[in-house]
Amino acid sequence: MKKPKLYLIGPTESVLTKRGNRFPNMAKFFVEEGEEVIYYTSNFYHAEKRFFSKYEVDEATQNLGYKLKVLNVLGYYTNVSPRRVLSNFLFSVRLFVMLLFKVSKQDKILLPSRPVELIFFMALLKKIKGVKIYLDIQDIWPDALQIKNKRKKRVFEIYCNTYLKPSLKHYTGALHVAPSFRLWLRRYAKKTPSSFVPLGWENERWSDVTLKAYKESSVVKMVCVAQLQHQIDIMPILEVLKNNDKLHLTILGEDGTGERYHEVINYINAHLITNIEIIGKIERKAMMYYLENKDIGVLPMITSSIPNKIFDYMAAMLPIIVLGDNDSSNFVVENKIGWQCNFNSKDLDVLLQRLNTSDIQTKKNQVVSIRDNFSRDILHKKIKEMIA
């Protein structure tokens, strides 16, 4: 009998990219488990809006242990544009045609929840070939895409629904990285099963972290891993910092191109805030060295999700403060690994002033006690069981 193959599809995520490596990690895991993995991606770097060079592609494809197929696509310059829609459509159609002549009924396909065109064409592929298809719900369109123009937003919603409504009910199963994402799936497919499998932290990156007891200090060192995009509202923290020199904030990952960057810099300069440091993009492997001497990780995110940064904090054994009422705050509170607060700076100030050495150490101990449950080594085994 022909050995079944596992097809992983990551249009914007592969060993070529610096951001997002859930699928590359899965590919490595399944290869080590003896699976034959074929990975499809594109030659366009979504995060930097550029094409990968032939040298980058050739270098990345060496010694992977699986086949990496890099498809040439149409590039685009903004996240919300007709050109991006066309690029997604062409990639999805081309991949559909290619797989139509490659996949067998016993094969499995795992793909992300965007673009919506890909979801549609893989559902069509299942109808024709009988292949098993699984959706990894890391993002939810049209909900998550920020479009200020109401007319454009409505058009985009209709466009997404055109692909999603006839497709999701045909999926073999799904994974969701945040509990609220299951509601998105239920909107389109009431019977498609889905399991909560969060993003988790990479064992390879964080294997050398050592536990350090929290020591009372004259300054509480907070860290926020984020580019200052629309969904990250750091302003309440700045309002607290300007009046409290016993706090210090480090922002990791902002290179001056974030949507809120100038707003933040102008506020810092206007109020002469000195207890803050902004560090640009850093290599993933270097993250540990920036977090290991911090006391608390913070997440001021206005959208609902449980992003990678939550697990970076957990991997670094840091307790966490989440602003807002969302998946991340629920996760932190339910697991007793930190605190939740609204976006009111006065309430945040009260919370921070109440924290003492015992509070921080207690939450830190709880992070350590559950940390391994959210390692990717453990989560990958859960995924394997689900798609077996």
UniProtKB/TrEMBL annotation:
GO terms for molecular function: glycosyltransferase activity. InterPro entries: Glyco_trans_1 (IPR001296). Residues 222-346 form the Glycosyl transferase family domain. It comes from the Bacteria. Gene3D superfamilies: Glycogen Phosphorylase B (3.40.50.2000). Keywords: Transferase. Coiled coil: none annotated. This is Glycosyltransferase family 4 protein. The lineage of its organism: Bacteria, Pseudomonadati, Bacteroidota, Flavobacteriia, Flavobacteriales.
